[in-house]
Amino acid sequence: MPEMPEINSGDTAWILAASALVLFMTPGLAFFYGGFVRNKNVLGTLMHSFITMGIVGVLWVVIGYSLAFGPDAGGGIIGDLSHFGLKGVGAAGDSQAGPGIPHEAFMIFQAMFAIITPALITGAFAERAKFGPFLIFIAAWSLLVYAPVAHWVFDIEGWIAADVKGLDFAGGTAIHVNAGAAALAAAICYGKRRGFKKEPMEPHDITYIVLGAGILWFGWFGFNGGSAGAANGIAVNAFTVTNTAAAAAALTWTLMSWWISGKPSIIGAAAGAVAGLVAITPASGYVQPMEAIAIGGVAGIICFLAVQVRIKGNVDDSLDVVAVHGIGGLWGALATGIFVVAASNTGFNALGEQVEGLVAGGGLDQLGRQAIGVAAVAAYSFVVTFLILKVLDLTVGIRVHEEDEVSGLDVSQHGERAYIFGGSGPVLGIPESIPMETESH
User: Fold this and answer.
1) Each residue of 208-259: pLDDT tens digit?
2) I want to staple 381 with a disulfide (CB 3.0 to 4.6 A). Which of 168, 181, 308, 336 is the partner?
3) Ranges of each domain in the chain
4) CATH number of 9-395
């Protein structure tokens, strides 16, 4: 029998713990998004994130992982089907995380990234999506957009990693720019909510928003720290700069909202923290804490301003996915090219070449490489997302009927209510126990 590769138990334990932390982020996202919508749509919004764990959790095992991390099928575009059904992905064996990490541990860690990325997009079309077509969209997007982009950026044979030599430690380009561009396409395809800019659409539960942001902040330590692939100094640094950037962005967003509106907003503090987490993600393995303050601080300002632009615009990105994830991810990816420091022992690209950013004296070279990666991912994601949704809209329709939108997605799509004041509520989700009267909010 061939000798089994030696497994590093400490590194493996950290990757498994990080995987659990990243999965926990998706319910956190559900609460974060759920707090922003009106109370007649909270269950539908929670369901979008929760059911994405089911859809992608299955697809990733069957084919998604092979497309993203299987041996390159040519040109660094996509993986082949060598790992279909996780063939050859066992509890032992080398993986791209390192020789001491079981291949299956690396696979399940990457599964959590694959789950949360499409869940991020759902904030762009909250309160108006038909559930059946939504399921098809998530499945199609995962295979046609996320899997190839993950291969480009994360796989050592991917063209952005190997040819462009772009840096993305934990997903600023592959996850946040990707989801942000898709969110813009989705907001355009779904159209504006009924009553957009004509009637109040205030968050129904700010405590949900803060709870969700707190869970996201907590889970992000696995998101970035786990991307080190081991329980080592790089993971410790990624953990530290993640917290630092989130703190800085929460402060700057709060100060901006205080200055503009005259009141320091708790929603602003929560959104700012998320913006900082997004921005530090691609740079978290490449910068030190002082650079993290700059990256997070700037993220809080520019993402706040991006929200103001969206408010004055005519595109209904319901929960500001583009402003926070798209713009935050864009800034973070470019900031990586500005601040990467080779002296930190983490400034290496996929080819093992040492990299210096603009501030460290490396000139504009790495910044240009980052810009190429961002532009390619954003363009591909926007176009393919738009095509997927247009095909679905022309065939089965993606948006609920007007009367269903008025009554709310909770009742019209799921036959349940989040809040029952007096009387008895639904039992085990049986729709017949729900009165179908129209609500006005």
Assistant:
1) 999 999 999 999 999 999 999 999 999 999 999 999 999 999 999 999 999 9
2) 181
3) 9-395, 402-433
4) 1.10.3430.10
